[in-house]
Amino acid sequence: MSETPDLTQRLEEYLDALPAESYTEWGDKVGVAGTSAESAKDRLNECAGVDVQKVDGEWCNVAGDRDVQAGVGDGEDDDDGPDPDDLTGREEYIVRELQQGVELDDLADDLDERESVVRTHLDDLEDQGWRICHDEDAGLFEIEGDHTLRSSEHKGTRTRKANRWWEVRHNALERQWKRLDPADVSLVAEPGNEDWVTHMTDLHAGDVVRDYAGELVYETEDIPTVVEYITEQSLSLASKHNADYDTAHLLYGGDMVTNEAIYKGQFEDLDAWLDEQADVIQQALIEQIITFSEHFDAVNVVCQIGNHGVNRADGTSKHNNADLLVYKAIRNFIHKSQEHWGRLDNVRMKIGEARPYTPVELRGGKLHGHLRHGQDRKPQAETSARLKEWLSTLLDTINSSWGSFDVAWMGHHHVSGNIPWNGPPIIVSGSPKPGGDYVEKLGVKGAATQPQEIAHCHGVSDEGITSIWPIDTRHYER
């Protein structure tokens, strides 16, 4: 009896190029003729766990085809509903807005059309099979069901389904948000008082890290304990600083989740699917926000997206980042708590836009913070190129309505410290995820030193930073 052949790296490339509508398209994706793709199909089907078949006009791997997340079906088209390919460019825009819920006058403004013209578009969509409903209480028009628009990406079935799940979940969060009435939480700044800032980044829910001996040293289950530890240490240091505080700022720097397919081979380094990553992080951060709300008069939560949460598929929205799902779910929880249960009424939350930084209002707007994830900056300003980057950032903020930043925070590089330069303080926070191959690839030296610095906290008065403390792992027990 012949042994089942192994899935070689070249065959993996063929598999990753699916789905494809024809052998010719399949071959084009891997740089070969269609006949070679046909031969590769036969070799793939001899491998364990692979069954390439043509389904709904596309060649795809149907073996072990799991729902990437609960509530999302196996195929791209789970019913006989409308075909997104039949939409015009304008109709596609309208459908995307309807998926998140939209008011008719807002849609008319976006399209620069009269409401009667927009209603005609809605009628045309209904004739195509799109089910549109009107929530009169909220004033929103919506698409019924979880129809999603195809992206043009071809990254394999798992990525395609992850993207689809992201879109369904994101649209649901947006529809929920538009039905909420968020509280207006003002950030006061009494003379002589301070604000307290906690910067936390790069938690990487979903990652598994083992040490040199193969022992497990970091996994998703550790994250709630890590966040609780950072909370306790920050509150303890705030007490030690012994100031009168107006506002606590919780700054989340991104890469809270790892997502499912960021770099080659990562699938084997995960211990939780995307929905599980999001659930663990959401609960941990909500507990942190609740605790801070009980210790400070006001809490300002500011969130920046990272780069590991990005769904890297051609044709997907630049907003398609798994960090956004975490942040928006937390935002909705906060405002539902305020509206329905009278809790967290001293908390406000800001989610950054799809750009590398988010401005932070400190001391009631007297000072300007600059929160970055950090993938587009090196954690130093010693070379002329790096100094030019930070000077450019400073100049950009000077020319903005915010004015020059007074303090900046970044992460991404899994190192910790302050960038030495003659400009405003730039605080670089490390990651709770232990150093490994990733930091080695970044060229970071001394990444494995102990204790590991995993966050920063500091006081800030009307004049600027009054103290800075790194939070390290010296008292942390896994």
Question: Please, could you describe this protein's structure?
Answer:
By secondary structure, the chain is of the alpha/beta class. It folds into three domains: 9-61, no CATH class; 84-160, Arc Repressor Mutant, subunit A (Orthogonal Bundle); 194-472, 4-Layer Sandwich (Purple Acid Phosphatase, chain A, domain 2), CATH 3.60.21. It has twelve helices and 17 strands. The strands form five sheets. It has a six-stranded mixed beta sheet with strand order 10-9-8-5-16-17, covered by helices on one side. Strands 11-12-13-15-14 form a five-stranded mixed beta sheet, with no helix packed on it. The longest helix has 22 residues, at 274-295.
Mean pLDDT: 80
Could you tell me the CATH topology label of the largest domain.
Purple Acid Phosphatase, chain A, domain 2
- Spatial strand sequence of the major β-sheet: 10-9-8-5-16-17
Low-confidence runs: 64-79, 150-158, 261-268, 311-318, 438-448
> Helix count?
12
Q: Architecture of the largest domain, according to CATH?
A: 4-Layer Sandwich
What is the CATH homology-level superfamily of the largest domain? Metallo-dependent phosphatases
Backbone CA Rg: 25 Å
Order of SSEs, N→C?
HHHEEHHHEEHEEEHEHEHEEEHEEEHEE
Q: Tell me the number of structural domains.
A: 3
- The proportion of residues in beta strands is 15-25%
